[in-house]
From TrEMBL:
Organism lineage: Eukaryota, Metazoa, Cnidaria, Anthozoa, Hexacorallia
Single GO biological process annotation from the record: DNA integration
Integrase catalytic domain location: 422-548
Gene Ontology terms, MF aspect: nucleic acid binding
Organism: Stylophora pistillata
Record's protein name: Uncharacterized protein K02A2.6
Protein backbone atom coordinates (compact mmCIF):
# COMPACT_ATOMS: atom_id res chain seq x y z
CA UNK A 1 0.00 0.00 0.00
CA UNK A 2 1.92 3.03 -1.22
CA UNK A 3 1.72 6.81 -1.31
CA UNK A 4 3.43 8.56 -4.22
CA UNK A 5 4.90 12.02 -3.74
CA UNK A 6 6.36 13.88 -6.69
CA UNK A 7 8.52 16.98 -6.67
CA UNK A 8 7.85 19.61 -9.32
CA UNK A 9 9.79 22.82 -9.80
CA UNK A 10 6.81 24.25 -11.70
CA UNK A 11 4.70 24.02 -8.55
CA UNK A 12 2.47 26.96 -9.38
CA UNK A 13 1.25 25.27 -12.57
CA UNK A 14 0.12 21.99 -11.01
CA UNK A 15 -3.59 21.12 -11.32
CA UNK A 16 -5.81 22.11 -8.41
CA UNK A 17 -7.94 18.97 -8.62
CA UNK A 18 -7.01 15.32 -8.88
CA UNK A 19 -6.69 12.03 -7.08
CA UNK A 20 -5.65 11.79 -3.48
CA UNK A 21 -2.71 9.36 -3.44
CA UNK A 22 -0.59 11.84 -5.37
CA UNK A 23 0.31 15.32 -4.30
CA UNK A 24 3.09 17.76 -5.10
CA UNK A 25 5.56 19.34 -2.74
CA UNK A 26 7.59 22.38 -3.60
CA UNK A 27 11.28 21.71 -4.07
CA UNK A 28 13.32 22.54 -0.97
CA UNK A 29 16.96 23.48 -0.74
CA UNK A 30 17.54 21.00 2.13
CA UNK A 31 17.36 17.35 1.03
CA UNK A 32 16.69 14.83 3.82
CA UNK A 33 18.21 11.37 3.68
CA UNK A 34 16.11 8.30 4.48
CA UNK A 35 17.49 8.13 8.03
CA UNK A 36 16.94 11.86 8.61
CA UNK A 37 13.36 11.59 7.37
CA UNK A 38 12.58 8.76 9.81
CA UNK A 39 14.27 10.62 12.67
CA UNK A 40 12.44 13.89 11.96
CA UNK A 41 9.00 12.23 11.84
CA UNK A 42 9.18 9.32 14.33
CA UNK A 43 5.41 9.15 14.85
CA UNK A 44 4.94 8.36 11.18
CA UNK A 45 7.24 5.32 11.30
CA UNK A 46 6.17 3.54 14.50
CA UNK A 47 6.27 -0.25 14.81
CA UNK A 48 2.61 -0.55 15.79
CA UNK A 49 -0.56 -0.74 13.74
CA UNK A 50 -2.19 2.48 12.62
CA UNK A 51 -5.87 3.07 13.18
CA UNK A 52 -8.04 5.29 10.98
CA UNK A 53 -11.30 6.78 12.20
CA UNK A 54 -14.50 4.88 11.54
CA UNK A 55 -15.38 1.23 11.00
CA UNK A 56 -16.06 -0.72 7.83
CA UNK A 57 -19.17 -2.86 7.44
CA UNK A 58 -18.96 -5.85 5.08
CA UNK A 59 -22.18 -6.14 3.11
CA UNK A 60 -23.17 -9.62 1.87
CA UNK A 61 -25.69 -10.84 -0.68
CA UNK A 62 -28.37 -12.44 1.53
CA UNK A 63 -29.21 -15.03 -1.15
CA UNK A 64 -25.74 -16.67 -0.89
CA UNK A 65 -25.51 -19.59 1.52
CA UNK A 66 -22.75 -19.42 4.20
CA UNK A 67 -19.83 -21.83 3.85
CA UNK A 68 -17.64 -23.35 6.59
CA UNK A 69 -14.21 -24.63 5.55
CA UNK A 70 -12.32 -27.35 7.36
CA UNK A 71 -8.91 -26.39 8.80
CA UNK A 72 -6.16 -26.33 6.17
CA UNK A 73 -3.01 -28.24 6.99
CA UNK A 74 0.06 -26.16 7.78
CA UNK A 75 3.59 -27.53 7.43
CA UNK A 76 4.92 -28.78 10.76
CA UNK A 77 8.03 -26.62 10.39
CA UNK A 78 5.86 -23.48 10.09
CA UNK A 79 3.49 -24.19 12.96
CA UNK A 80 5.64 -22.70 15.78
CA UNK A 81 6.20 -19.55 13.73
CA UNK A 82 2.49 -19.40 12.88
CA UNK A 83 1.52 -19.67 16.56
CA UNK A 84 3.96 -16.89 17.41
CA UNK A 85 2.52 -14.71 14.60
CA UNK A 86 -1.08 -15.30 15.72
CA UNK A 87 -0.24 -14.44 19.35
CA UNK A 88 1.46 -11.26 18.18
CA UNK A 89 -1.61 -10.27 16.12
CA UNK A 90 -3.83 -10.89 19.15
CA UNK A 91 -1.57 -8.63 21.23
CA UNK A 92 -1.80 -5.89 18.59
CA UNK A 93 -5.61 -6.32 18.58
CA UNK A 94 -5.57 -7.19 14.87
CA UNK A 95 -7.31 -10.54 15.50
CA UNK A 96 -9.18 -12.09 18.42
CA UNK A 97 -9.62 -15.77 19.43
CA UNK A 98 -13.07 -17.37 19.28
CA UNK A 99 -14.55 -20.20 21.32
CA UNK A 100 -17.83 -20.64 19.40
CA UNK A 101 -18.51 -21.40 15.73
CA UNK A 102 -19.92 -18.86 13.24
CA UNK A 103 -21.86 -19.12 9.98
CA UNK A 104 -18.87 -18.25 7.83
CA UNK A 105 -15.51 -19.95 8.48
CA UNK A 106 -12.59 -19.55 6.06
CA UNK A 107 -9.16 -21.08 5.68
CA UNK A 108 -5.91 -19.14 5.81
CA UNK A 109 -2.92 -18.90 3.51
CA UNK A 110 0.48 -18.69 5.19
CA UNK A 111 3.39 -17.28 3.18
CA UNK A 112 6.96 -16.51 4.38
CA UNK A 113 8.04 -12.87 3.92
CA UNK A 114 11.48 -11.63 2.88
CA UNK A 115 12.24 -10.49 6.42
CA UNK A 116 11.61 -13.97 7.85
CA UNK A 117 8.14 -13.17 9.21
CA UNK A 118 4.94 -14.93 8.16
CA UNK A 119 2.18 -13.24 6.18
CA UNK A 120 -1.23 -14.52 7.29
CA UNK A 121 -3.94 -13.96 4.67
CA UNK A 122 -7.58 -14.93 4.64
CA UNK A 123 -8.77 -17.29 1.88
CA UNK A 124 -12.42 -16.23 1.63
CA UNK A 125 -13.04 -17.52 -1.89
CA UNK A 126 -16.68 -18.40 -1.22
CA UNK A 127 -17.35 -15.31 0.86
CA UNK A 128 -15.92 -13.01 -1.83
CA UNK A 129 -18.65 -14.24 -4.17
CA UNK A 130 -21.20 -12.90 -1.67
CA UNK A 131 -19.49 -9.59 -0.80
CA UNK A 132 -21.07 -6.49 -2.34
CA UNK A 133 -17.97 -4.56 -3.36
CA UNK A 134 -17.42 -0.84 -3.10
CA UNK A 135 -17.74 1.10 -6.37
CA UNK A 136 -14.40 2.90 -6.31
CA UNK A 137 -11.88 2.71 -9.13
CA UNK A 138 -8.13 2.57 -8.65
CA UNK A 139 -6.93 6.09 -9.58
CA UNK A 140 -3.94 5.40 -11.84
CA UNK A 141 -5.49 7.21 -14.81
CA UNK A 142 -6.20 10.31 -12.72
CA UNK A 143 -2.74 10.19 -11.17
CA UNK A 144 -1.02 10.17 -14.55
CA UNK A 145 -2.62 13.49 -15.51
CA UNK A 146 -1.01 15.12 -12.46
CA UNK A 147 2.53 13.99 -13.15
CA UNK A 148 3.30 16.44 -15.97
CA UNK A 149 6.55 18.21 -15.11
CA UNK A 150 7.44 15.80 -12.29
CA UNK A 151 11.17 15.01 -12.15
CA UNK A 152 11.76 13.38 -8.76
CA UNK A 153 9.57 10.75 -7.08
CA UNK A 154 9.30 9.39 -3.55
CA UNK A 155 7.28 6.33 -2.52
CA UNK A 156 6.18 5.88 1.10
CA UNK A 157 4.79 2.44 1.96
CA UNK A 158 1.94 2.26 4.48
CA UNK A 159 2.81 -0.47 6.97
CA UNK A 160 0.11 -3.16 6.84
CA UNK A 161 -2.20 -0.67 5.18
CA UNK A 162 -5.41 -2.73 5.37
CA UNK A 163 -5.02 -3.18 9.12
CA UNK A 164 -5.55 0.57 9.53
CA UNK A 165 -9.26 -0.04 8.78
CA UNK A 166 -11.30 -1.46 11.68
CA UNK A 167 -14.26 -3.78 11.12
CA UNK A 168 -17.54 -3.39 12.93
CA UNK A 169 -18.58 -6.18 15.33
CA UNK A 170 -20.87 -8.00 12.89
CA UNK A 171 -18.36 -7.86 10.03
CA UNK A 172 -15.62 -9.13 12.33
CA UNK A 173 -17.44 -12.45 12.81
CA UNK A 174 -17.78 -12.80 9.02
CA UNK A 175 -13.97 -13.07 8.83
CA UNK A 176 -13.66 -16.07 11.17
CA UNK A 177 -10.89 -18.47 10.10
CA UNK A 178 -9.62 -21.91 11.05
CA UNK A 179 -6.07 -22.62 12.26
CA UNK A 180 -4.40 -25.66 13.88
CA UNK A 181 -4.78 -23.75 17.14
CA UNK A 182 -8.49 -22.94 16.93
CA UNK A 183 -10.79 -20.25 15.57
CA UNK A 184 -9.92 -16.56 15.24
CA UNK A 185 -11.69 -13.52 13.84
CA UNK A 186 -10.20 -10.39 12.29
CA UNK A 187 -10.82 -7.10 14.05
CA UNK A 188 -9.18 -5.18 11.20
CA UNK A 189 -9.51 -5.50 7.44
CA UNK A 190 -7.76 -8.77 6.46
CA UNK A 191 -5.73 -9.39 3.32
CA UNK A 192 -7.88 -11.42 0.92
CA UNK A 193 -11.25 -9.65 1.15
CA UNK A 194 -12.30 -8.69 -2.38
CA UNK A 195 -13.50 -5.20 -1.42
CA UNK A 196 -10.37 -4.35 0.59
CA UNK A 197 -8.43 -2.48 -2.16
CA UNK A 198 -11.35 -0.18 -2.96
CA UNK A 199 -12.06 0.55 0.71
CA UNK A 200 -8.41 1.34 1.48
CA UNK A 201 -8.00 3.50 -1.63
CA UNK A 202 -11.13 5.45 -0.78
CA UNK A 203 -9.79 6.10 2.72
CA UNK A 204 -6.50 7.33 1.31
CA UNK A 205 -8.40 9.67 -0.99
CA UNK A 206 -10.30 11.16 1.95
CA UNK A 207 -7.27 11.57 4.21
CA UNK A 208 -4.16 12.29 2.15
CA UNK A 209 -5.42 14.66 -0.53
CA UNK A 210 -3.15 17.69 -0.24
CA UNK A 211 -1.77 16.50 3.11
CA UNK A 212 1.32 18.46 4.17
CA UNK A 213 1.90 16.93 7.62
CA UNK A 214 1.01 14.11 10.00
CA UNK A 215 -2.61 14.17 11.08
CA UNK A 216 -4.41 10.88 10.55
CA UNK A 217 -2.37 8.25 12.44
CA UNK A 218 -1.07 6.49 9.33
CA UNK A 219 1.99 4.33 10.07
CA UNK A 220 4.64 4.13 7.33
CA UNK A 221 7.26 1.44 6.76
CA UNK A 222 10.78 2.94 6.90
CA UNK A 223 12.28 -0.15 5.24
CA UNK A 224 10.35 0.46 2.03
CA UNK A 225 10.99 4.17 1.55
CA UNK A 226 12.12 5.09 -1.95
CA UNK A 227 13.40 8.62 -1.63
CA UNK A 228 13.91 11.03 -4.54
CA UNK A 229 14.02 8.48 -7.35
CA UNK A 230 14.05 9.21 -11.08
CA UNK A 231 11.59 6.34 -11.61
CA UNK A 232 9.38 4.31 -9.26
CA UNK A 233 6.87 1.46 -9.46
CA UNK A 234 3.40 2.59 -8.43
CA UNK A 235 0.05 0.78 -8.81
CA UNK A 236 1.49 -1.65 -11.35
CA UNK A 237 3.16 0.95 -13.60
CA UNK A 238 6.59 2.54 -13.88
CA UNK A 239 6.40 6.31 -13.34
CA UNK A 240 9.43 8.31 -14.41
CA UNK A 241 10.37 11.79 -15.58
CA UNK A 242 9.94 10.52 -19.15
CA UNK A 243 6.36 9.33 -18.73
CA UNK A 244 4.36 6.25 -17.81
CA UNK A 245 5.83 2.87 -18.74
CA UNK A 246 4.88 -0.78 -18.44
CA UNK A 247 6.05 -2.54 -15.30
CA UNK A 248 8.98 -4.75 -16.43
CA UNK A 249 7.59 -7.57 -14.26
CA UNK A 250 4.36 -7.51 -16.31
CA UNK A 251 6.37 -7.69 -19.53
CA UNK A 252 8.34 -10.64 -18.21
CA UNK A 253 5.16 -12.40 -17.02
CA UNK A 254 3.61 -12.16 -20.48
CA UNK A 255 6.72 -13.10 -22.48
CA UNK A 256 7.33 -16.15 -20.25
CA UNK A 257 3.69 -17.26 -20.30
CA UNK A 258 3.34 -20.76 -21.82
CA UNK A 259 1.01 -21.55 -24.70
CA UNK A 260 -2.58 -21.71 -23.34
CA UNK A 261 -4.02 -25.20 -23.05
CA UNK A 262 -7.65 -24.28 -22.28
CA UNK A 263 -10.07 -21.35 -22.34
CA UNK A 264 -9.26 -20.35 -18.77
CA UNK A 265 -5.59 -19.85 -19.71
CA UNK A 266 -6.61 -17.70 -22.68
CA UNK A 267 -8.79 -15.58 -20.41
CA UNK A 268 -5.87 -15.06 -18.02
CA UNK A 269 -3.71 -13.98 -20.95
CA UNK A 270 -6.35 -11.56 -22.22
CA UNK A 271 -6.84 -10.18 -18.72
CA UNK A 272 -3.15 -9.31 -18.44
CA UNK A 273 -3.18 -7.80 -21.93
CA UNK A 274 -6.23 -5.68 -21.09
CA UNK A 275 -4.47 -4.37 -17.97
CA UNK A 276 -1.78 -3.00 -20.30
CA UNK A 277 -4.26 -1.93 -23.00
CA UNK A 278 -3.28 1.74 -22.90
CA UNK A 279 0.21 0.77 -24.11
CA UNK A 280 -1.05 -1.45 -26.96
CA UNK A 281 -2.09 0.13 -30.27
CA UNK A 282 -4.52 -2.12 -32.18
CA UNK A 283 -4.88 -4.52 -29.22
CA UNK A 284 -8.36 -5.62 -30.29
CA UNK A 285 -7.09 -6.56 -33.77
CA UNK A 286 -4.22 -8.58 -32.32
CA UNK A 287 -6.35 -10.46 -29.80
CA UNK A 288 -9.47 -10.99 -31.93
CA UNK A 289 -8.67 -14.68 -32.71
CA UNK A 290 -8.06 -15.29 -29.00
CA UNK A 291 -11.25 -13.47 -28.03
CA UNK A 292 -13.25 -15.66 -30.41
CA UNK A 293 -11.77 -18.76 -28.80
CA UNK A 294 -13.24 -17.84 -25.38
CA UNK A 295 -16.85 -17.81 -26.62
CA UNK A 296 -19.11 -20.43 -25.05
CA UNK A 297 -20.35 -21.81 -28.36
CA UNK A 298 -16.79 -22.24 -29.75
CA UNK A 299 -15.02 -25.56 -29.24
CA UNK A 300 -11.44 -25.54 -27.94
CA UNK A 301 -9.16 -25.91 -30.95
CA UNK A 302 -5.78 -24.16 -30.80
CA UNK A 303 -4.82 -23.50 -34.40
CA UNK A 304 -2.17 -21.62 -36.35
CA UNK A 305 -4.12 -18.32 -36.24
CA UNK A 306 -4.29 -18.50 -32.45
CA UNK A 307 -0.59 -19.31 -32.20
CA UNK A 308 0.25 -16.38 -34.48
CA UNK A 309 -1.89 -14.01 -32.39
CA UNK A 310 -0.25 -15.33 -29.21
CA UNK A 311 3.25 -14.75 -30.56
CA UNK A 312 2.33 -11.31 -31.93
CA UNK A 313 0.92 -10.29 -28.54
CA UNK A 314 4.09 -11.39 -26.74
CA UNK A 315 6.21 -9.50 -29.26
CA UNK A 316 4.08 -6.35 -28.96
CA UNK A 317 4.45 -6.17 -25.17
CA UNK A 318 8.24 -5.86 -25.57
CA UNK A 319 7.80 -2.78 -27.79
CA UNK A 320 5.33 -0.78 -25.72
CA UNK A 321 5.87 3.01 -25.85
CA UNK A 322 6.43 5.47 -23.03
CA UNK A 323 3.21 7.43 -22.51
CA UNK A 324 3.87 11.10 -21.97
CA UNK A 325 2.03 12.74 -19.10
CA UNK A 326 -0.80 14.93 -20.34
CA UNK A 327 -0.36 18.65 -19.82
CA UNK A 328 -3.79 20.01 -18.94
CA UNK A 329 -2.83 23.41 -20.39
CA UNK A 330 -2.06 22.06 -23.87
CA UNK A 331 -4.62 22.06 -26.64
CA UNK A 332 -5.34 18.49 -27.68
CA UNK A 333 -7.33 16.67 -30.35
CA UNK A 334 -9.20 13.46 -29.53
CA UNK A 335 -9.37 11.22 -32.59
CA UNK A 336 -11.62 8.16 -32.59
CA UNK A 337 -12.23 5.33 -35.02
CA UNK A 338 -14.02 2.00 -35.06
CA UNK A 339 -14.03 -1.26 -36.95
CA UNK A 340 -15.87 -4.56 -36.72
CA UNK A 341 -13.28 -5.85 -34.23
CA UNK A 342 -12.90 -2.89 -31.88
CA UNK A 343 -12.95 0.77 -30.99
CA UNK A 344 -9.92 3.01 -30.85
CA UNK A 345 -9.13 6.51 -29.70
CA UNK A 346 -6.00 8.53 -29.22
CA UNK A 347 -5.19 11.95 -27.88
CA UNK A 348 -2.97 13.95 -30.20
CA UNK A 349 -1.04 17.03 -29.25
CA UNK A 350 1.80 18.86 -30.87
CA UNK A 351 5.03 18.51 -28.97
CA UNK A 352 8.15 20.63 -28.96
CA UNK A 353 10.77 20.10 -31.64
CA UNK A 354 13.90 18.33 -30.49
CA UNK A 355 17.31 19.07 -31.98
CA UNK A 356 18.58 15.61 -32.88
CA UNK A 357 22.30 14.89 -32.45
CA UNK A 358 24.22 13.37 -35.36
CA UNK A 359 24.55 9.95 -33.70
CA UNK A 360 20.76 9.47 -33.49
CA UNK A 361 19.72 10.79 -36.89
CA UNK A 362 20.06 7.47 -38.73
CA UNK A 363 17.91 5.66 -36.16
CA UNK A 364 15.20 8.34 -36.31
CA UNK A 365 15.26 8.26 -40.11
CA UNK A 366 14.47 4.55 -39.95
CA UNK A 367 11.67 5.01 -37.40
CA UNK A 368 10.17 7.91 -39.35
CA UNK A 369 10.08 5.79 -42.49
CA UNK A 370 9.00 2.52 -40.81
CA UNK A 371 5.36 2.75 -42.01
CA UNK A 372 6.26 3.77 -45.61
CA UNK A 373 3.82 6.70 -45.63
CA UNK A 374 5.67 8.47 -48.42
CA UNK A 375 8.02 11.42 -48.67
CA UNK A 376 5.54 14.15 -47.74
CA UNK A 377 4.01 12.10 -44.92
CA UNK A 378 7.40 11.38 -43.37
CA UNK A 379 8.61 14.97 -43.70
CA UNK A 380 5.42 16.46 -42.24
CA UNK A 381 5.48 14.00 -39.33
CA UNK A 382 9.15 14.66 -38.58
CA UNK A 383 8.77 18.44 -38.68
CA UNK A 384 6.29 18.35 -35.81
CA UNK A 385 8.79 16.96 -33.31
CA UNK A 386 12.31 16.81 -34.82
CA UNK A 387 14.90 19.13 -36.27
CA UNK A 388 18.41 18.98 -37.63
CA UNK A 389 20.04 20.82 -40.53
CA UNK A 390 18.99 19.44 -43.95
CA UNK A 391 16.50 17.07 -42.27
CA UNK A 392 13.93 17.25 -45.09
CA UNK A 393 16.60 16.63 -47.72
CA UNK A 394 17.99 13.63 -45.86
CA UNK A 395 14.50 12.14 -45.44
CA UNK A 396 13.85 12.64 -49.16
CA UNK A 397 17.16 10.98 -50.09
CA UNK A 398 16.58 8.10 -47.67
CA UNK A 399 13.11 7.33 -49.02
CA UNK A 400 14.29 7.59 -52.63
CA UNK A 401 16.52 4.59 -51.88
CA UNK A 402 13.66 2.48 -50.47
CA UNK A 403 12.75 -0.26 -52.98
CA UNK A 404 9.24 -0.70 -51.56
CA UNK A 405 8.37 3.00 -51.75
CA UNK A 406 9.79 3.37 -55.26
CA UNK A 407 7.98 0.27 -56.53
CA UNK A 408 4.60 1.60 -55.40
CA UNK A 409 5.06 5.34 -55.92
CA UNK A 410 3.35 7.41 -58.60
CA UNK A 411 5.41 8.48 -61.57
CA UNK A 412 4.75 12.20 -61.07
CA UNK A 413 3.63 12.83 -57.51
CA UNK A 414 1.80 16.11 -57.00
CA UNK A 415 2.89 18.62 -54.43
CA UNK A 416 0.58 18.59 -51.39
CA UNK A 417 -2.19 21.18 -51.36
CA UNK A 418 -1.92 23.95 -48.78
CA UNK A 419 -5.09 24.54 -46.80
CA UNK A 420 -6.53 28.07 -46.62
CA UNK A 421 -7.05 29.70 -43.25
CA UNK A 422 -10.36 28.89 -41.60
CA UNK A 423 -12.68 31.89 -41.38
CA UNK A 424 -14.68 32.54 -38.22
CA UNK A 425 -17.50 34.57 -39.82
CA UNK A 426 -19.29 35.01 -43.18
CA UNK A 427 -17.87 37.25 -45.90
CA UNK A 428 -14.53 37.68 -44.15
CA UNK A 429 -12.71 36.02 -47.03
CA UNK A 430 -14.06 35.75 -50.58
CA UNK A 431 -12.75 34.42 -53.89
CA UNK A 432 -13.44 35.93 -57.33
CA UNK A 433 -12.93 34.66 -60.87
CA UNK A 434 -14.13 35.35 -64.43
CA UNK A 435 -16.39 32.94 -66.26
CA UNK A 436 -17.05 32.87 -70.05
CA UNK A 437 -20.45 31.41 -70.89
CA UNK A 438 -22.45 31.80 -74.12
CA UNK A 439 -20.45 34.80 -75.34
CA UNK A 440 -20.91 36.50 -71.99
CA UNK A 441 -18.37 37.20 -69.28
CA UNK A 442 -19.52 36.74 -65.68
CA UNK A 443 -17.82 37.80 -62.46
CA UNK A 444 -18.30 35.02 -59.86
CA UNK A 445 -17.68 35.81 -56.17
CA UNK A 446 -17.79 33.03 -53.53
CA UNK A 447 -17.64 33.21 -49.70
CA UNK A 448 -15.16 30.86 -47.99
CA UNK A 449 -17.26 30.55 -44.83
CA UNK A 450 -20.83 30.04 -46.12
CA UNK A 451 -20.18 29.02 -49.76
CA UNK A 452 -22.58 31.83 -50.79
CA UNK A 453 -22.13 32.77 -54.48
CA UNK A 454 -22.88 36.10 -56.13
CA UNK A 455 -22.73 36.71 -59.92
CA UNK A 456 -22.43 39.92 -61.96
CA UNK A 457 -22.59 40.36 -65.75
CA UNK A 458 -19.55 42.29 -67.01
CA UNK A 459 -19.79 44.81 -69.83
CA UNK A 460 -16.09 44.24 -70.53
CA UNK A 461 -13.10 42.42 -69.00
CA UNK A 462 -11.16 45.56 -68.21
CA UNK A 463 -9.99 46.44 -64.73
CA UNK A 464 -12.44 49.38 -64.31
CA UNK A 465 -15.40 47.16 -65.28
CA UNK A 466 -14.42 44.50 -62.75
CA UNK A 467 -13.86 47.13 -60.04
CA UNK A 468 -17.30 48.64 -60.73
CA UNK A 469 -19.09 45.30 -60.20
CA UNK A 470 -17.03 44.41 -57.12
CA UNK A 471 -17.95 47.77 -55.58
CA UNK A 472 -21.64 47.02 -56.18
CA UNK A 473 -21.38 43.56 -54.59
CA UNK A 474 -19.36 44.81 -51.60
CA UNK A 475 -21.77 47.73 -51.09
CA UNK A 476 -24.78 45.40 -50.94
CA UNK A 477 -23.21 42.64 -48.81
CA UNK A 478 -20.08 43.82 -47.00
CA UNK A 479 -16.45 44.67 -47.64
CA UNK A 480 -14.42 41.49 -47.02
CA UNK A 481 -11.13 41.33 -45.18
CA UNK A 482 -9.50 39.29 -47.97
CA UNK A 483 -10.16 38.93 -51.69
CA UNK A 484 -8.50 35.97 -53.45
CA UNK A 485 -8.18 36.02 -57.26
CA UNK A 486 -5.93 34.58 -59.94
CA UNK A 487 -3.08 36.53 -61.52
CA UNK A 488 -5.09 37.88 -64.47
CA UNK A 489 -3.74 41.12 -65.95
CA UNK A 490 -6.98 42.97 -65.14
CA UNK A 491 -6.42 42.19 -61.44
CA UNK A 492 -2.74 43.10 -61.30
CA UNK A 493 -3.05 46.74 -62.32
CA UNK A 494 -2.16 49.78 -60.23
CA UNK A 495 -5.81 50.82 -60.42
CA UNK A 496 -6.92 47.56 -58.74
CA UNK A 497 -4.27 48.04 -56.02
CA UNK A 498 -5.63 51.53 -55.32
CA UNK A 499 -9.15 50.05 -55.13
CA UNK A 500 -8.04 47.46 -52.55
CA UNK A 501 -6.24 50.09 -50.48
CA UNK A 502 -9.14 52.58 -50.62
CA UNK A 503 -11.77 50.00 -49.69
CA UNK A 504 -9.44 48.53 -47.02
CA UNK A 505 -9.27 44.85 -47.96
CA UNK A 506 -6.25 42.66 -48.63
CA UNK A 507 -5.89 41.38 -52.20
CA UNK A 508 -4.31 37.92 -52.42
CA UNK A 509 -3.44 36.24 -55.71
CA UNK A 510 -3.10 32.53 -56.40
CA UNK A 511 -0.09 30.78 -57.93
CA UNK A 512 0.55 31.80 -61.54
CA UNK A 513 -0.60 29.26 -64.17
CA UNK A 514 -2.04 27.03 -61.43
CA UNK A 515 -5.78 27.60 -61.21
CA UNK A 516 -6.27 24.79 -58.65
CA UNK A 517 -4.70 26.97 -55.95
CA UNK A 518 -7.81 29.18 -56.12
CA UNK A 519 -10.08 26.18 -55.72
CA UNK A 520 -12.93 28.04 -54.06
CA UNK A 521 -13.40 30.31 -57.09
CA UNK A 522 -12.92 27.43 -59.55
CA UNK A 523 -15.65 25.40 -57.82
CA UNK A 524 -17.99 28.38 -57.82
CA UNK A 525 -17.42 28.91 -61.55
CA UNK A 526 -18.23 25.27 -62.29
CA UNK A 527 -21.38 25.51 -60.16
CA UNK A 528 -22.59 28.61 -62.05
CA UNK A 529 -21.85 27.02 -65.44
CA UNK A 530 -23.89 23.94 -64.57
CA UNK A 531 -26.74 26.05 -63.17
CA UNK A 532 -26.94 28.40 -66.17
CA UNK A 533 -26.74 25.51 -68.64
CA UNK A 534 -29.67 23.76 -66.94
CA UNK A 535 -31.66 27.01 -66.83
CA UNK A 536 -31.16 27.55 -70.54
CA UNK A 537 -32.31 24.01 -71.31
CA UNK A 538 -35.42 24.34 -69.11
CA UNK A 539 -36.30 27.92 -70.08
CA UNK A 540 -35.90 29.29 -66.52
CA UNK A 541 -34.39 32.71 -65.88
CA UNK A 542 -30.76 32.32 -64.85
CA UNK A 543 -30.65 35.18 -62.35
CA UNK A 544 -33.99 34.14 -60.88
CA UNK A 545 -32.45 30.74 -60.21
CA UNK A 546 -29.68 32.48 -58.24
CA UNK A 547 -32.30 34.01 -55.93
CA UNK A 548 -33.60 30.54 -55.10
Amino acid sequence: MGVLVYQDNDHQNKPETGTAPVYAVQAQDTVLSKEELVTKFPKGFTEGVGNLDGEYKIRLDPTVQPVQHAPRRVAVALQPKLKETLDDLVTQEVIAPLTESTEWISSIVVAPKKNGQLQVCLDPKDRNCAIQREKYEMPMEDIATRLHGAKVFTVLDVRNGLWHISLDEQSSYLTTFQTPFGLYRWRCMPFGISSAPEVFQHKMYELIEGLTGIEWNVCLNPEKIKLQQSEVLFIGHMASNKGLQVNPAKVRAMTEMPVPTDKAAVQRLLGLAQYLAKFFPHLSDITMPLQDLTQRDVDWVWGSTHQAAFEKLKEAVTKTPVLRYHNLKEEVTLQCDASQSGLGDEMMFKGQQLVVPTALRRELLEKTHALHVGIEGCICGARDTLYWPRMSTEIWEYIRKCDICMAHSKGQAREPMMQHDFMARPWSKVAADLCDLDRRTLLVVSDYYSNYIDVALLSSTTSPAIIKELKAIFASLWIPDYLVTDNGPQLSTAEFSVFAKTWMFEHRSSSPSYAQSNGKAENAVQTIKRLFTKCKASGVSEFQALLD
